């Protein structure tokens, strides 16, 4: 089965209706600006910040919430191995946030379309 990404045992895949539409990976310089009276601000390298990944997508049907519950379960657990669909191992990452928005609600409140954002932060022991 082809997959886009795996976080631990959670698979993002078109075939499991858990695909994401956008992937954003952010790496920053670790340079801070320090204000100084009467002078230009000074810059100083403060160390390399941890990288982040943000995934955005949607799940159609009434199973979106239960699928995202599995991802929410990673928030308070140990870091998870993240592997891209092409086999690239990104090492350990922590799930820091899962945002879920239900759309097209039916009479019992079940969402037939669920949009989501999953935020990860690189883990360095």
Automatic annotation (TrEMBL):
It comes from the Bacteria. The lineage of its organism: Bacteria, Pseudomonadati, Pseudomonadota, Gammaproteobacteria, Oceanospirillales. This is Phage tail protein. InterPro entries: Myoviridae_GpU. Pfam families: Phage_P2_GpU (PF06995).
């Amino acid at each position: 089965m082809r997959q886009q990404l795996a976080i631990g045992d959670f698979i993002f895949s078109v075939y499991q209706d858990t695909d994401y539409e956008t992937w954003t990976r952010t790496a920053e310089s670790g340079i801070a600006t320090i204000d100084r009276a009467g002078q230009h601000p000074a810059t100083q390298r403060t160390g390399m910040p941890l990288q982040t990944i943000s995934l955005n997508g949607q799940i159609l049907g009434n199973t979106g919430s239960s699928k995202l519950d599995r991802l929410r379960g990673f928030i308070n657990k140990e870091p998870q191995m993240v592997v891209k669909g092409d086999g690239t191992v990104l090492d350990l990452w922590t799930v820091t946030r899962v945002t879920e928005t239900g759309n097209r609600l039916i009479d019992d409140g079940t969402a037939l379309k669920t949009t989501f954002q999953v935020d990860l932060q690189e883990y360095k022991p």
